[in-house]
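The following block was generated as part of the benchmark described in Methods. Ligand: nicotinamide-adenine-dinucleotide.
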Amino acid sequence: MKIQDRTFIVTGGASGLGLATVQDFHSSGGYVSIWDMNADTGAKLVDQLGSRAVFYEVDVTSTESIEAAVKKTMEWVGKTGKELAGVVAGAGVGNPAKMIDRNGDPITMDSIDFVLNINLRGTLDTVRQCVAHMAKNKPLTPDGERGVVILVSSSAAFDGQPGQVSYAASKGAVASMTLPMARDLARYGIRVVTIAPSLFESRMTAMLGEKARKSLEKVMEFPVRAGKPEEFSRMVKEGVENSMLNGTVIRLDGAMRMPSKM
Ligand SMILES: NC(=O)c1ccc[n+]([C@@H]2O[C@H](COP(=O)([O-])OP(=O)(O)OC[C@H]3O[C@@H](n4cnc5c(N)ncnc54)[C@H](O)[C@@H]3O)[C@@H](O)[C@H]2O)c1
């Protein structure tokens, strides 16, 4: 499915991998509805990109916040006439915490809920509200395609490290939901593709600290470096453009398998 003259929603679009995706969609002639909690960056981004981009301040843990942004996006789509053809659910957080902390206390439910609510619940809520609109599109390709869902999992879905129980649970769930979601949506011509990156340059990984980042880079197989955001967005584009990609989880990881100890 082509990107040009179609509208795409990107959550977490103000930073890192989401931001690269927004820029790539835009330079491919797409219209982008950027959703993020970071309103300042979002506003600046729209200033740079111009009339084919809008920003909405959204908290993906809130159903009402997503509803409001879907409504505004669909009003924008009504004005531009460029169908909503895809959603990239990029909003996500790490928030490492071990099962038992230094004082012998168990991981808190607040910490677990925080991660699951954004990475899992927020992803599902965003996608469920978007696909209801995409299903009403007229077919956009000769195959009868009406839309694409791109989910973002992680290497942690397969080999989570110490302190990543909540994160791995959320990203494992995102990977697991890929096939049933594709099966549910097949009758509407909506595909689902999940990308599972390893270590990529972004604000999230900048927060890891130099030492942790360097030791993660060292265990990359090849190339021995963090992935670049544009290497992620290129895979998103392929997910949109290549109609045979469906119901699959693509590891984008330079053959890296995350070790237990660093
Ligand atoms: N960078 C990596 O190495 C890496 C590896 C594997 C998976 N991922 C996943 O890729 C996605 C993007 O991560 P990134 O590395 O670009 O991080 P990032 O921190 O640069 O970007 C994440 C964005 O999500 C937004 N966000 C957070 N909570 C939100 C909420 N409740 N509602 C709306 N927006 C919210 C943030 O404001 C931020 O702009 C995440 O799902 C992350 O788990 C990243």
